[in-house]
Automatic annotation (TrEMBL):
It comes from Lupinus luteus. Signal peptide: none annotated. The chain crosses the membrane at residues 30-54, 74-95, 115-135, 147-168, 180-200, 212-232, 238-256. This is WAT1-related protein. The lineage of its organism: Eukaryota, Viridiplantae, Streptophyta, Embryophyta, Tracheophyta. GO terms for cellular component: membrane. Keywords: Membrane, Transmembrane, Transmembrane helix. One of its GO terms (molecular function) is transmembrane transporter activity.
Amino acid sequence: MTMSIFMKIVALSLLEPVIDQNLYFLGMKYTTATFAAAMTNIIPAITFFMAYILRIEKIKIRSIRSQAKVVGTLVTVSGAMVMTLMKGASLGSLGTHVDNNHNQLHNSGTNIQHTIKGTIMIITGCFSWSCFVIIQSITLDAYPAELSLTSLICLLGSIEGAVVAMIMERGNSSVWFVKWDIKLVAIIYSGIVGSGLAYYVQGVVMQTKGPVFVTAFSPLCMIIVAILSSIILAEQLFLGRVIGAIIIVLGLYLVVWGKSKDHNTRPIAKDPILVEKQNSEEGNERMEHCNEEVITIGSSGVRITTQD
């Protein structure tokens, strides 16, 4: 591992586990879970723009596949905005237990300053996530080991996150005590699924499809949150969310179709050890073939025969 690769891994661990997750959770605290999930839908647009600027994603205006990717990204983001801004008629809830006390208390205690502060935090976190995806794509070109890269990112991110927590929570030792409650479940889930599994899976997909394809599925979070919140939290399901979900699915279909027609997909980097082993085996086969040839020099001239 070179110093350049190590510095990229340090940047990755600082962007995603530390900056993005902390700002996202703080922003969710000042706003709502649905609003935070809706704001993450700007990630595909930011990533698409950054990938185009850095020449990671090639766009040909006259190409149908390129048009499908651009239009699909815009349609996906538009569908997410429809889910956020448009309510429409209430379709009821999928849950049986309705408890609106938490939402009423939260809304009554939320003012415009907290909303603006939370929005800025969430947008900054989304930008950090887009930068993380782009840098991860660049790092995988030089260090094509998804599992090892994920482990290093999580390890360095844990160290950096602990340092940030000690600075921000100095003098408040109670935050370090972990209890057997829903907070512990959230911590474990965020570490295993939200970080480790997510980094590895998107790294594997990114090797062949690129960062734009990976982030195109971010708006699905809105659909999943809407369904789970209706079942678990018994939140009302509105017609606008259903329409927005349909638009998101259509946009994702365009993006996936455009990427499937993209024949200039990024090749998977080969392991240098395997390449050297393959070249060595090919060389041995050529040597064995040469050893089977017998050169006979006689009065009639030179004759080359091959032994079976």
